[in-house]
């Protein structure tokens, strides 16, 4: 019997930089390439072509992207660049004339075509006939048990420190039925947690005039509350990121109290001082937000609030910064991320007067981190003795322990729950855990048998 030797599939190496949204783009591109018969290469040496998905949000991210391109050129030589820095094709080409192609963010067809050109796919009648359903909905770069679901691209706002709208354009929402179909496939393939992302999740569907689409015999509007309710019916954790505090956000809180959506809101407030928020041109700049936080907690007491803040924005005085610290003392947010203001090429904020000196930015950064660590430690300490549901992320066979996350913890950005006994658990399991200890960011416990 003569065995047919299958031709070797071309291999693509991937360097994915940037935010979760860029990661979703990488997943989409790799899913398509995989469907076209490509294999992934875990290293430069085995790759026929290396794809670098870049981030161009901050100058430091651009520098990191250029460094990654340089490394891929040195190590492999056959490089295709995509992502946010694709807008700066001239800069990339003048620095690295050997780059094979440069494409921009969300130019899926272009980047896939560039990879086809660089390393042509080999038709493979055997492999190409495998039904897509048997391969799962996509080649995922995140662990199988959680998935990011991008519901829109672009943004209609013009925050003074941000160049995303000029990179990614105006808001373009996906149809709700397309999002729900993708979410269903992800759940069928083993996802236990859906992380909803976009530049502005509360604005979802504005461009579609919140029209309704038929879905499973009912009408679902392109609106955050409808979408959250439907995703909540899929029986997995649903976590909402990048939510701006528009008035209709209040209507999502009862869904959290009902258990349809995780009691978790990631709201990038960025500042609290009305003067600085105006100067930042932030959307949904609501002076009543502290009062609303109290109301949200009265409807859903276990809600966890996460936010990020920029310190040292031009014109920020000590008084403005102290206002922010006082606000945080009252708001008692569960998780806080802080950034020192960094002027990004093309951002309107660069033209503002009264820049804050670097050493003052650093001091303010240290002060806000110290305060938020104290608040976080106190909040976590109050969980000792309680039993919390935990989604297991990893199991350490050597130590016999495991780690996972409670409903209050998003992957990568929030804390973890460390289990001293993995008790035969596997990643993706959701189990009750009795909390025994805590520190500034993490919890420690043991599964409840
Ligand atoms: S809301 Fe503001 S910070 Fe967020 S993407 Fe839009 S312009 Fe940028």
Keywords:
single chain; 449 residues; alpha/beta; Rossmann fold; pyruvate-formate lyase- activating enzyme; OB fold (Dihydrolipoamide Acetyltransferase, E2P); 3 domains; 5-stranded parallel sheet; 5-stranded mixed β-barrel; 14 helices; 22% strand; globular; binds iron/sulfur cluster
The major β-sheet equals: 5 strands, parallel
Number of strands: 20
- CATH architecture field of the largest domain: Alpha-Beta Horseshoe
β-sheet strand percentage: 15-25%
Helix content: 25-40%
Bound molecules: iron/sulfur cluster
On the 0 to 100 scale, the average pLDDT is 89
Question: What gyration radius follows from the Cα positions, in whole Å?
Answer: 23 Å
Summed up, the domain count is 3
Number of helices: 14
CATH superfamily of the largest domain: tm_1862 like domain
Q: Give the C-level CATH assignment of the largest domain.
A: Alpha Beta
Low-confidence stretches: 125-138
What would you call the structural class? alpha/beta
* CATH third-level topology of the largest domain: pyruvate-formate lyase- activating enzyme
């Amino acid at each position: 019997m003569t065995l047919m030797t299958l031709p070797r599939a071309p291999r693509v190496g991937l360097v994915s930089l940037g935010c979760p949204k860029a990661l979703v783009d990488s997943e989409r591109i790799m899913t398509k390439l995989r469907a076209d018969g490509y294999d992934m290469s875990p290293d430069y040496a085995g790759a026929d072509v290396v794809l670098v998905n870049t981030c161009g949000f901050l100058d430091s991210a651009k520098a990191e992207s250029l460094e990654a391109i340089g490394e891929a050129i040195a190590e492999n030589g056959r490089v295709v660049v995509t992502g946010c820095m694709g807008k700066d094709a001239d800069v990339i080409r003048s620095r690295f004339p050997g780059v094979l192609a440069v494409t921009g963010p969300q130019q899926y067809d272009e980047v896939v075509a560039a990879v086809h050109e660089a390393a042509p796919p080999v038709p493979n009648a055997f492999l190409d006939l495998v039904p897509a359903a048997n391969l799962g909905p996509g080649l995922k770069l995140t662990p199988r048990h959680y998935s990011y679901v991008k519901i829109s691209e672009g943004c209609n706002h013009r925050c003074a420190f941000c160049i995303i709208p000029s990179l990614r354009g105006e808001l373009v929402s996906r149809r709700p039925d397309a999002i729900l179909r993708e979410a269903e496939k992800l759940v069928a393939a083993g996802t236990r947690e859906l992380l909803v992302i976009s530049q502005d999740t509360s604005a979802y569907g504005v461009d579609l005039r919140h029209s309704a689409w038929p879905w499973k015999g009912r009408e679902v509007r392109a609106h955050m509350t409808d979408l959250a309710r439907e995703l909540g019916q899929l029986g997995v954790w649903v976590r909402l990121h990048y939510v701006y505090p528009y008035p209709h956000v209040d209507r999502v809180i009862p869904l959290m109290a009902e258990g349809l959506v995780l009691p978790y809101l990631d709201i990038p407030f960025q500042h609290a001082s009305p003067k600085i928020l105006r100067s930042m041109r932030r959307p949904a700049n609501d002076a009543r937000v502290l009062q609303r936080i109290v109301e949200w907690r009265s409807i859903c007491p276990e809600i966890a609030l996460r936010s990020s803040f920029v310190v040292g924005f031009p014109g920020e005085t000590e008084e403005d910064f102290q206002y922010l610290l006082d606000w945080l003392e009252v708001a008692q947010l569960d998780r806080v991320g802080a950034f020192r203001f960094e002027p990004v090429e093309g951002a309107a904020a660069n033209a503002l007067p009264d820049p804050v000196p670097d050493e003052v930015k650093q001091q303010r950064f240290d002060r806000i981190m110290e305060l938020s660590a104290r608040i976080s430690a106190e909040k976590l300490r109050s969980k000792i003795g309680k039993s919390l549901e935990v989604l297991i992320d990893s199991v350490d066979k050597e130590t016999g322990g495991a780690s996972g996350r409670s409903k209050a913890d998003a992957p990568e950005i929030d804390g973890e729950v460390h289990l001293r006994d993995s008790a035969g658990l596997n990643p993706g399991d959701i189990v009750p855990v009795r909390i025994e200890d805590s520190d500034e960011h993490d919890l420690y416990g043991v599964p409840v048998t």
